[in-house]
Amino acid sequence: MYKKPVSVLVVIHTAALEVLLLERASHAGFWQSVTGSQENDETPIETAQREVAEETGIAAPPEAFRDWRITNTFEILAAWRHRYAPGVTRNTERVFSLELPQAQAIRLAPDEHLAYLWLPWREAAAKCFSWSNRDAILMLPEKSLAW
């Protein structure tokens, strides 16, 4: 079964703008926020909720997520194209955030991630391999003030 080229990016952070990053198991040294593809007939918020629970162990209700109403479209890295139907080269990603009261221990999905870090937002942005993830983290101070 091929992955849908429609995904979510969830920037998990504290009120002090510490950002959670996860290191990919399949690509050591690649750090990112929670990401994942839509499954079946999920809505974007349902995908965000499921991916956060699967990748971190955090069970947050839908109303805890903030939908930034930002969509990024980008080229799927060649190393990951085999997961998609032949000829699919671009992915559309919807951006969300989830604020937690404080940094907390995370339950990693060992098949997906090797480690996690809580970093100040600027450091987190600099560590991300993905431009869309970096840009979302750099918008975090502005977005946090908007709510």
Name its key features.
three-stranded antiparallel sheet; Nucleoside Triphosphate Pyrophosphohydrolase; 147 residues; single chain; alpha+beta; 35% strand; 3 helices; 7 strands
Can you describe this structure?
The protein has 147 residues and is α+β, with helices and mostly antiparallel strands. The chain has a single domain, classed as Nucleoside Triphosphate Pyrophosphohydrolase. Helix content is 24%, strand content 35%. The protein has helices at 44-56, 121-127, 131-146; strands at 6-14, 18-24, 31-32, 34-37, 65-75, 90-100, 113-120. The strands form two sheets. It has a four-stranded mixed β-sheet with strand order 4-1-6-5. Strands 3-2-7 form a three-stranded antiparallel β-sheet. A hairpin with a 6-residue loop joins strand 2 and strand 3 (31-32). The chain is globular and about 45 Å long. The mean pLDDT is 95.
